[in-house]
């Protein structure tokens, strides 16, 4: 008896396997919920009974991740970013709001490697301090959207019925609104310019994506033979969800959430750039890029440093998610 | 070895074929020196459990091995005396489908879901015979008639999912036989079907084989199917052939403990009420095949020699061979 | 097939109502358009009340919504507060954005699919790794950064194209903005195509096609591509909305007077009829694009057609 496959073959149940997963925010994450039909057939299988080292999905993934340079590098970058988000003073002792107009747009000089911006603020200090807003928005918005989305989507997938239908329609409605457009409309009436309205908005438009993924993977997990067996043996709903379904459905959600974190950071910067996200005195890469964009012909350094920091941050989270997906998805090995 | 190599060239002659798979857990030796041959009109049944290498051997013969991770590391596949493994890719492609073809186990996944069955059949004629689309469509209808699909003319534009399992497998057979190949490899052709349909499909295949005088390699784990249609049997275990014999001789008196185990594990009406025999243990991990005879950990007759010396194929009788140090004892035990 | 179309059309209705109501709710319930109209001055209470009456602002929100939708269905999108008809604004803005989106879509589809197929067929080789890495980098750079940088490099430094687009916005001036707009989606299309190609190239029916002795190019074009492009088509359909939303940023960078520009102006001035009108049209475009995708899907995949 081979071990139960982690996922059923979706082709049998759903001829549109990739549908649920395709949203602009999740990159290539659509491959997760597919079992490898080929390995059932013949040929050597890792973890063949008798090999004596059948490992769990998670320890297998961790084993892979530790050896994956992409994972290691992006994880280190993220740890660094989180550290300077909490204690920016570690590497930039200056005050990002203390500026000297006399030095406006000056280039790199000793002690001020990134030069000055239009207001004469030190670009290095502002770039370092800008990490806090980005990381805070990214983490809070992802936590909110993931919590809301996976609970709603998971319950919809588990119970099905009218609740499932209703939730899918509601998610459709939110998908019907292009996200930057919604941000413009929603955030233009909130003038506080702090982190929280932005987080709230991203959670509001971000949860349907997570909920679709969670719903899809719960539905797939529910169809697994051993879950059916547990049900036949009279396991209660709560036990079913927590013991049998959640552990199997959580992997795709984690992957999508990690990648979403990166895109949320980019979204915050975009909203701040358009003028409806964070507002001064909050220090944000989006605001700085927006201000610098006017002067790009005269002083490109003002734009390139915060833009580079933003891109590297987003890249780190997306690469992390990508590496985790590769590790959790044995299909494309 | 009991190969008749001095005779006029055999249709297919597989010699010392070796295939490896490179996996994360190491190199899996899926096929370790397999020899078998098929003559025109002859049916060879290849018998074995999952992972015994029977399908991998067939894929290597067809040239459709997934590579990577699979790799042919040695041996020859002689088709009418020519080695397919050293042949140019284009020459080999022209043989595939036209001179030798394959029937797969699960027709639902083996047929293209977004192409009508007619188009998939017609494609054979368009590619290999350069036929026009119109002519090839007409041939496709004939072909569907030939495998007894009712109302073939109306159904030629239908898609695989619109057919029943049995009908789909008939289409699979039609596709394999479209160009009247010399050799057909059928990989578990009836395993995915209902028991009632299995016999019909098998009969159709046997009938067409006789009509076209094709060589047939029938890969299966179903001993019942084998007894009716095969001429000779090759039993595989851990990537090796452990016994070859004409079908009736093998059924009457197996010369390898593994074959005996397989035969004893068939439920039989005349032994109703008795406990069914089961081979103990599990097939070996192909990344770490035990030294000596690969079957020794599961063998009821294993002695010290079995744990140290790998048995070669001993000639047992004319056309029979067994890879067991104690083939005589095994034969006598019946 | 007919029933399938009707079912899809019916499913669109609640989504349309929900999305437009949501936007309507945000614009009208959260902001005060009358106060915005008067700017910093305190409005004369009588005038304010009259305007409210005219705009049905004194009615409950759902009545306002019904009233507004009723007007829209008769082709009356209302008047912007500067006196211009919203439909006039639309007539000038939508063709521009449509051209921009078309350029972006074309670029995204052609380059994305070609790159995706190339890397999917060579999974694990250097081409694949390079393409994957490039797409990750492209996804990580927000549009407004890549937009300014490309505008600066190509438009200003090398002078290859005009950095700003003229008001009429002909196709050739929209190439660079279109590329900028498409970049992120292009990366997604590439990755998605690569994934489905890589996945399907191991499918049983591809093995069958090889066993049939088909030449490689026929295996790829007839068997692999058609199966693999089904999810890609879906993505591109849903992406139309993202492109039109993204146009807000791109149009701002290149000073293009399209939908994004008008919307931005409308929002800045809390010009509710403009905002709701434009968004309603965008939602309709988005839904129609999705419907088109569903139909295309049914054409490409017979399993849907006959379900």
From TrEMBL, chain A:
Keywords: Cell membrane, Membrane, Transmembrane, Transmembrane helix, Transport. The chain crosses the membrane at residues 70-91, 135-159, 179-207, 245-267, 303-324. It comes from the Bacteria. The keyword Transmembrane helix applies. Residues 1-54 are annotated as: Disordered. It is a multi-pass membrane protein. Residues 131-321 form the ABC transmembrane type-1 domain. GO terms for cellular component: plasma membrane. GO terms for biological process: transmembrane transport. It holds the Pfam family BPD_transp_1. It is found in: Cell membrane. The keyword Transmembrane helix applies. Residues 1-14 have a biased composition (Basic and acidic residues). InterPro entries: BP-dependent_transpt_permease, MetI-like, MetI-like_sf, OppC_N. Belongs to the binding-protein-dependent transport system permease family. This is Peptide ABC transporter permease. It comes from Streptomyces albireticuli.
Automatic annotation (TrEMBL), chain B:
Residues 14-263 form the ABC transporter domain. One of its GO terms (molecular function) is ATP binding. One of its GO terms (cellular component) is plasma membrane. Keywords: ATP-binding, Cell membrane, Membrane, Nucleotide-binding, Transport. It comes from the Bacteria. It is found in: Cell membrane. Pfam families: ABC_tran, oligo_HPY. PROSITE patterns: ABC_TRANSPORTER_1, ABC_TRANSPORTER_2. It is a peripheral membrane protein. SUPFAM superfamilies: P-loop containing nucleoside triphosphate hydrolases. Its main location: membrane. Belongs to the ABC transporter superfamily. This is Methionine ABC transporter ATP-binding protein.
UniProtKB/TrEMBL annotation, chain C:
It is a multi-pass membrane protein. The keyword Transmembrane helix applies. GO terms for biological process: transmembrane transport. It holds the Pfam family BPD_transp_1. Residues 94-297 form the ABC transmembrane type-1 domain. It comes from the Bacteria. The keyword Transferase does not apply. Belongs to the binding-protein-dependent transport system permease family. It is found in: Cell membrane. The lineage of its organism: Bacteria, Bacillati, Actinomycetota, Actinomycetes, Kitasatosporales. This is ABC transporter permease. One of its GO terms (cellular component) is plasma membrane. Its main location: membrane. The chain crosses the membrane at residues 12-31, 96-118, 130-154, 174-192, 232-254, 274-300. Keywords: Cell membrane, Membrane, Transmembrane, Transmembrane helix, Transport.
């Amino acid at each position: 008896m081979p071990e139960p496959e982690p996922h059923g073959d979706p082709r049998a149940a759903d001829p549109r396997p990739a549908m649920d997963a395709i949203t602009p925010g999740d990159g290539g994450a659509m491959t997760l919920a597919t079992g490898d039909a080929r390995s059932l057939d013949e040929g050597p299988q890792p973890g063949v009974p008798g090999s004596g080292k059948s490992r769990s999905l998670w320890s297998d993934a961790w084993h892979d991740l530790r050896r994956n340079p992409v994972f290691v590098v992006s994880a280190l970058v993220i740890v660094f970013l989180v550290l300077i988000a909490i204690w920016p003073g570690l590497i930039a002792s200056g005050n990002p709001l203390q500026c000297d107009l006399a030095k406006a747009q000056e280039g790199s000089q000793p002690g001020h490697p990134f030069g000055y911006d239009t207001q004469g603020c030190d670009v290095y200090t502002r770039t370092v301090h800008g990490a806090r807003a980005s990381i805070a928005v990214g983490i809070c918005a992802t936590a909110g959207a993931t919590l809301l989305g996976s609970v709603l989507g998971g319950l919809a997938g588990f119970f099905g019925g009218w609740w499932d239908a209703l939730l899918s329609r509601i998610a459709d409605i939110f998908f019907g609104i292009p996200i930057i457009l919604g941000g413009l409309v929603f955030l233009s009436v909130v003038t506080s310019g702090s982190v929280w309205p932005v987080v709230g908005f991203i959670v509001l438009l971000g949860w349907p994506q997570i909920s679709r993924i969670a719903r899809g993977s719960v539905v797939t997990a529910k169809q697994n033979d051993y879950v059916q067996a547990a049900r036949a043996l009279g396991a209660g709903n709560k036990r079913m969800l927590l013991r049998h379904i959640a552990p199997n459905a959580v992997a795709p959600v984690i992957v999508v959430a990690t990648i979403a974190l990166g895109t949320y950071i980019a979204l915050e910067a975009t909203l701040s750039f358009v003028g409806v996200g964070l507002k001064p005195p909050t220090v944000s890469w989006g605001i700085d890029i927006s201000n610098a964009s006017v002067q790009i012909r005269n002083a490109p350094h003002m734009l390139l440093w915060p833009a580079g920091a933003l891109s590297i941050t987003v890249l780190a989270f997306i690469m992390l998610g990508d590496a985790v997906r590769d590790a959790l998805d044995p299909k494309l090995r | 070895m009991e190969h008749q190599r001095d005779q006029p060239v055999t249709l297919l002659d597989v010699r010392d074929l070796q295939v490896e798979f490179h996996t994360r857990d190491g190199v899996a030796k899926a096929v370790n020196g397999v020899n078998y041959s098929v003559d025109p009109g002859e049916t060879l049944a290849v018998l074995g459990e999952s992972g015994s290498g029977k399908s991998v051997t067939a894929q290597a013969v067809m040239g459709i091995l997934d590579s990577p991770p699979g790799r042919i590391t040695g041996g020859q596949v002689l088709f009418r005396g020519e080695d397919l493994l050293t042949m140019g890719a284009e020459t080999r492609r022209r043989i595939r489908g036209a001179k030798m073809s394959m029937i797969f186990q699960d027709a639902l996944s083996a047929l293209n879901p977004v192409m009508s069955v007619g188009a998939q059949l017609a494609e054979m004629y368009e590619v290999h015979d350069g036929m026009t689309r119109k002519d090839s469509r007409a041939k496709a209808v004939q072909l569907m008639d030939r495998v007894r699909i009712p109302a073939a003319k109306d159904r030629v534009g239908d898609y695989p999912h619109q057919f029943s399992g049995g009908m789909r497998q008939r289409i699979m057979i039609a596709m394999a036989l479209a160009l009247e190949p010399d050799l057909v490899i059928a990989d578990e052709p009836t395993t995915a079907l209902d028991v009632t349909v299995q016999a019909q499909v098998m009969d159709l295949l046997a009938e067409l084989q006789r009509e076209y005088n094709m060589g047939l390699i029938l890969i299966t784990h179903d001993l019942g199917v084998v007894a009716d249609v095969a001429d000779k049997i090759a039993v595989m275990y851990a990537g090796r052939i452990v016994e070859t014999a004409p079908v009736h001789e093998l059924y009457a008196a197996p010369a390898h403990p593994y074959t005996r185990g397989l035969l004893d594990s068939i439920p039989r009406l005349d032994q109703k009420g008795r406990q069914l025999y089961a081979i103990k243990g599990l097939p070996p991990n192909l990344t770490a095949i035990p030294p000596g005879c690969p079957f020794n950990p599961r063998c009821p007759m294993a002695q010290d020699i079995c744990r140290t010396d790998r048995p070669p194929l001993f000639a047992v009788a004319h056309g029979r061979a067994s890879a067991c140090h104690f083939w005589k004892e095994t034969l006598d035990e019946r | 097939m007919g029933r399938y179309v009707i079912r899809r059309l019916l499913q669109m209705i609640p989504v349309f109502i929900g999305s437009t109501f949501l936007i309507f709710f945000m614009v009208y319930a959260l902001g005060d358009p009358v106060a915005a109209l008067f700017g910093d001055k305190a409005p004369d209470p009588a005038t304010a009340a009259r305007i409210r009456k005219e705009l049905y602002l004194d009615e409950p929100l759902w009545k306002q919504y019904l009233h507004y939708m009723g007007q829209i269905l008769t082709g009356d999108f209302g008047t912007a507060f500067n006196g211009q008809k919203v439909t006039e604004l639309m007539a000038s803005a939508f063709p521009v954005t449509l051209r921009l989106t078309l350029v972006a879509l074309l670029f995204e589809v052609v380059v994305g699919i070609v790159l995706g197929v190339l890397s999917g067929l060579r999974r694990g080789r250097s081409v694949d790794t390079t393409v994957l890495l490039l797409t990750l980098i492209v996804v990580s750079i927000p549009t407004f950064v890549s937009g300014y940088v490309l505008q600066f490099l190509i438009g200003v430094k090398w002078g290859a194209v005009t950095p700003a687009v003229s008001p009429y916005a002909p196709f050739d001036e929209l190439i660079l903005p279109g590329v900028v707009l498409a970049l992120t989606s292009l990366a997604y299309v590439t990755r998605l195509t690569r994934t489905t190609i890589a996945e399907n190239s191991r499918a049983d029916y591809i093995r069958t096609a090889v066993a049939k002795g088909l030449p490689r190019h026929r295996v790829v074009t007839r068997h692999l591509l058609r199966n693999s492009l089904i999810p890609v088509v879906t993505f591109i359909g849903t992406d139309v909305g993202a492109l039109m939303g993204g146009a807000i940023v791109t149009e701002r960078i290149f000073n293009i007077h399209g939908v994004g520009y008008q919307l931005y102006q409308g929002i800045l001035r809390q010009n509710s009829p403009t905002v709701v009108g434009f968004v309603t049209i965008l939602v309709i475009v988005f839904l129609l694009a999705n419907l088109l995708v569903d139909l295309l899907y049914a054409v490409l995949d017979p399993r849907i057609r006959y379900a």
